[in-house]
Amino acid sequence: RSENSTESLGSPTRGGVKQRGKAPEWVSSDCEEGLNDVHEMIKTEKPHPERRLRGVLEELSSACFRFVTLANKDQSLSVRTKLDRERLKSCMRELENMGQQARTLRSQVKKNTMRDKLKLVQNFLQKLRFLADEPQHSIPDIFVWMMSNGKRIAYARIPSKDILYSIVDEETGKDCAKVKTIFLRLPGKRGFGPAGWTVQAKMEIYLWLGLNKQRKDFLSGLPCGFEEKKASKGPGLQAFPPISLLYTKKQVFQLRAHMYQARSLFAADSSGLSDPFARVFFITQGQCTEVLNETLCPTWDQMLVFDDVELYGEAHEMRDDPPIIVIEIYDQDTVGKADFMGRTFAKPVVKMSDEHYGPPRFPPQLEYYQIYRGNATAGDLLAAFELLQIGPAGKSDLPPIDGPTDMDQGPILPVPLGIRPVLSKYRVEILFWGLRDLKRVNLAQVDRPRVDIECAGRGVQSALIQNYKKNPNFSTLVKWFEVDLPENELLHPPLNIRVVDCRAFGRYTLVGSHAVSSLRRFIHRPPDKKFQPWNTAAKLLNGYMALANGGPPCYHPPGEIVINMEPEVPIKKMETMVKLEAVSIGVSEEEKEKKKKKKKKKGGEEMEDEEPDESMLDWWSKYFASIETMKEVGAAERQGTTASSHGRRHLPGLVYNKELEMEFDGFEDWLHTFNLFRGKIGDNDDTTTEEERIVGRFKGSMCVYKVPLPDDITKEAGYDPNFGMFQGIPSNDPIHVLVRVFIVRATDLHPADINGKADPYIAIKLGKTDIKDKENYISKQLNPIFGKSFDIEATFPMESMLTVAVYDWDLVGSDDLIGETKIDLENRYYSKHRATCGISQTYSIHGYNIWRDPAKPSQILAKLCKEGKVDGPHFGPGGRVKVANRVFTGPREMEDENGQKKQTDEHLALAVLNHWEEIPRAGCRLVPEHVETRPLLNPDKPGIEQGRLEMWVDMFPMDMPAPGPAIDISPRKPKRYELRVIVWNTDEVILEDDDFFTGEKSSDIFVRGWLKGQQEDKQDTDVHYHSLTGEGNFNWRYIFPFDYLMAEEKIVISKKESMFSWDETEYKIPARLTLQVWDADHFSADDFLGAIELDLNRFPRGAKTAKQCSLEMVTQEGDLPLVSIFKQKRVKGWWPFVARDENDELELTGKVEAELHLLTAEEAEKSPAGLARNEPDPLEKPNRPDTSFIWFLNPLKSVRYFIWHTYRWLLLKILLLFLSLLLAGLFLYSLPGYLVKKLLRA
Asked: What spans are recorded as compositionally biased (Polar residues) (predicted)?
């Protein structure tokens, strides 16, 4: 490039390339730094990460606006290409947008919304990186090659934009004029994949790229203290730049690398474990830690010392910006070279010789460093690095290395005391429950497994399972071991779970392993005596109750909390045909207002909103009402009004739009499931997924606590020292259970047939029971309603994994799996959330809402109180019950089937169960009556949802009283109806035709009608010919039989899709009647004049006369009183016909007087009626004017009406004229003869 053309590169004042790429880059690097801080805070659980995120967003928005102002100042540049200009515009637009979004987002960051907002900021970062990338590189990149014997061995590629110089700091490349460590990699294809991840060479390099006129600054970034060695200035030789630099100042340091431990490393061996060791590189030296065999979480506890490390430059520069340390983790193999497992970088803490070795900087703290393998993360390293300057007095000034040199390990130095964590004695109790779904090892089945637990060098072994097939549970439940663990919980080493199989001749084979990387959730913290949260909660709740009940708080004995459970006025919800008797803590004022408004329709006229008939209600009514409520709650949340947890819980028969496990933390309240892994982890190019590495599951738990335990726990009544902290856990002996699976419906199934549909049916597998409901497949449906229940007897733990699959039925060949879902019933059965049978909101002993559990609410409550060692329940007079320090009040009467009222405590007990989480200490949320939505997955398409299945599971132990019959959830059967529509008259129909003779406007009117979905069964009236006023008289009856689902307000139609279809497909369509008015033509297609569509559930009431019938009946439907034919049964009136004009606006094209009469199939049979005007119950012939006839069938009539009516005076005049002319003609004709006769007197 010439000097001039290079102008556009560097200087910000007249440079396009520089400005257009750099700005988004510095914005993105700042944003990335901030985000890393936030992630680090979340990981180490530091307080208020949301404040840091707000700061990041504030910085991001100000940086964006700063870039926009910089770019605006710099608009008038002529040397920019069109690409530069357009790109700059694009960057400005995007960054301005982003700045505004970041500002808005900042105000929305709260503690609970932080995770979602963090994802949005990550998206910003990705967009910034994309913007920072040059679409067209104007300067080539720099390549550094390492050669040996003329062969290229390794290379590094440095983007030129990173080392480009500019006098504006923000626009300078991030590595310009800096000593940078670069890593050389293999060239060509060898450099890709795991083989190319190992570094071939590391080199320190200083690069500067800028304009010729700025070259005087090119050495400005080098460490100080050098002399330039220039070439002798001969003829044609330039003395610039120097050949070499001679450093006069050098500092000597000692690096101490404290390698404590690593966790969650890459599994490099086929056993699913690794033999890891670490290599540490600094400047020109490298050292290794020892190799620890068969672990993914090695604790090396080793200090590596690098002596006499020489660094050049000024001392202060070394202190502020020391060189980086490279740490690589390898897996030692007995044969062949070590496998690369991952790499991380660190900067040491520097101490100069004149500084004191002491707090706050020294001794350095152990820190976590993320290990990367390629682009993926591969674990964490816990280590600390310090770089100590060796002063004039030599090494004697350095802090002594006074670790106990372990003679067995040779010269291995442990991490010194000030840096290694402070240890305390902890006891780790392990609950061994059982093993599940163990796969074969080396083709042999696992028969006698054992679990080994190891943590920080100590451990414990479970009892041996003698016969895995017969009983996969352990005989001894709780074992413990004591271990020294760091006081700081973040530094706790991982706990390793390994399952081995005891084979013949005392051989042990590894089945699989699992590393629990964080013990935090298993740490037992004794409750603080000084702090009693229940007192404050009590005050708050009393205040809340007062607000809800709209009065001042009433006073009760201290420490007691009174909760009022009186049911509210039942909410009327006509659309979903259900009465919601939610036991709620007071309906909010807003909702009451809404209800008032709903009642007051136009002109005070109330909508027909009578109570739905109890007999009409069924389980589906409750289900659809719940879906409606769920939608309303979702909409309210989207608008920002959050529903209170109480309001959220008291929905009728709640439908969860997710798995029940997600709502209740996987039912792992005391029994946890750990996946066991075996085999190498696949790299990006491998196909080994995590699912494929799972070889089984270990069920159990653990509890970690400092010893000794406080006395109050060990001295508690009924404390069994054998169970330690796992008091009151049930026995793990095999148990017989009746499992009742209810399948409601599936939604959004993946099409399995060529026609884009599927023929789904349900298949259920539990242990040896395999049910395939193949006969009841649902034809051509992607949203089938199954409405089925299945009873299965099972024995836990052998049969505890329930698989519910949806298959596609095929006429030929095997059926295809659409998707399946798996439910661990055992965790649900033993959970404290009581997931055996959902607790409903109301207690009823008959009807669709019948109580499903064999135990009554009072029995369940008594059992929970006994198990949780809670005082109660004490039922008192006046509908009161006391549990612990809570008093609940509520109704005490209940109706039986005959409507007789009787006294009962069940409602009160149920109220307590619905609020069990408010009971101190023992309380937790109990699973309500529910329907859960589970994703369907297909093993052939991992990770892609194939549809969703709505279902629930009830479980009843066989040694308890048998439950009643399963609740009926079979799909509703449509009811047969007959709709009779009589078209009496039409009026003001627009006139389409011009008369052939007279040119008068007229129409040949007929009316066509059909029910939506039954267009092929359309019915027409006869034709009213030659209507001159738009009036038509018909007296014509249509009859439409149809099947109707009252609760869903849909017509059900079953028909074959095509002549080749095997069976009929069912459709559900809204009940809508369409009436159209047409102009009949004989020699061309009939002309459409207008139509009206009436929704039979809510259509405007017909006008009493044709005059009152107007276009507003269609356009302002919301303000008019609406009627439903299913309630009114018979409706008569005038309705408008409408059509769209050229401007696409509705216009009135006629009016029709019709009568709608709805009958059930039985009623229609009793009083039959004929189609049109036929028997039985015939209609009168219409009294039509004489003009309505067909002209070519009655030519005389047509002459009479078309000619005589219009032109009779003209015709009479013509006739008179003709007669007079005839008379004159005859006179003239006969005159000569007459004259001759007279003259001749003949």
From this structure: 1-11
Q: Pick the residue with more confidence: 548 or 707?
A: 707
Give me 66's structure tokens.
């700063």
The candidate with the shortest Cα–Cα distance to 258, out of 301, 316, 322, 199, is 301
Cα dist. 868→66, 359, 727, 832 in Å? Answer: 61, 49, 11, 10
- Chain centre distance of CA 22: 37
pLDDT value at 1174 more than 60: yes
Per-residue pLDDT reduced to its tens digit, 423-468? 889 999 999 999 999 999 888 899 999 999 988 878 899 999 999 9
Question: With contact defined as beta carbons under 8 Å apart, do 804 and 745 qualify?
Answer: no
Residue count of the chain, please give it: 1242
Distance of CA 715 to the CA centre of its chain: 47
Gap between the Cα atoms of 1059 and 1069, Å rounded: 22
- Reduced to 3 states (helix: H, G, I; strand: E, B; else coil), residue 25 is helix
Q: Which two tokens stand for residue 1047?
A: 């609760």
Answer whether 1153's CB lies under 8 Å from 992's CB. no
DSSP string over 955-983:
EEETTSPPP-SPP--PPPPPEEEEEEEEE
For residue 34, is pLDDT > 70? yes
* DSSP H or E segment with residue 691: helix 690-693
Backbone conformation region of residue 1194, classed left if phi is above 0, alpha if psi is from -120 to 50, else beta: beta
3-state SS assignment for residue 1142:
coil
Strands (E), 420-457: 423-436, 449-455
Classified as helix, coil or strand, 436 is: strand
> What pLDDT was estimated at residue 79?
67
CA 724 to chain centre: 40
**Residue at token pair 């060990």:** 714
> Of the candidates 929, 969, 732, 740, which has an alpha carbon nearest to the alpha carbon of residue 841?
929
779-792: pLDDT as tens digits: 888 999 999 999 99
Q: Is the pLDDT of residue 593 over 70?
A: no
One-character DSSP codes across 96-108: HHHHHHHHHHHHH
| Distance from the first to the final alpha carbon of the chain | 140
pLDDT tens digit sequence for 646-665: 434 444 457 888 899 988 88
Quote the longest CA-to-CA distance of the chain: 185
790 Cβ neighbours under 8 A, 6+ residues apart: 740, 741, 743, 764, 771, 773
Distance between CA atoms of residues 907 and 776, nearest Å: 39
Q: Measure the CA–CA gap between 260 and 383, rounded to whole angstroms.
A: 5
Cα–Cα distance between 1019 and 1042 in angstroms, integer?
15
CB burial of 547-581 (b: ≥16 within 10 Å; e: otherwise) equals ebeeeeeeeeeeeebbbbbeebeebebeebbbbbb
Per-residue DSSP letter, 867: H
Which residues lie across from 741 on neighbouring strands? 790, 953
Give the pLDDT confidence score for residue 790 in this predicted structure: 95
596 pLDDT band, cuts 50/70/90, is very low
Nearest in space to 936 (alpha carbons), one of 915, 926, 951, 918: 951
- Read out DSSP for 546-570? HHHHTSPPPP-STT-EEEE-PPPPP
> What is the rounded distance in angstroms from the CA atom of residue 309 to the CA atom of residue 318?
12
Q: Are 245 and 228 in contact (CB under 8 A)?
A: yes
Euclidean distance between CA atoms 573 and 612, whole angstroms: 9
CB contact at 8 A, 704 and 427: yes
pLDDT in tens, 245-279: 888 778 889 999 999 989 888 888 877 788 899 99
- Cβ atoms of 52 and 86 closer than 8 Å: no
Question: In Å, what is the CA distance from 1165 to each residue of 1053, 1096, 1233?
Answer: 21, 22, 89
> In whole angstroms, what separates CA 531 from the centre of its chain?
38
Task: For residue range 504-561, list pLDDT tens digits in order.
Answer: 888 888 899 998 888 888 988 876 654 444 444 444 444 444 334 443 334 344 455 5
What is the pLDDT, as a whole number, of residue 609?
A: 44
How far is 1018 from 1074, CA to CA, in rounded Å?
10
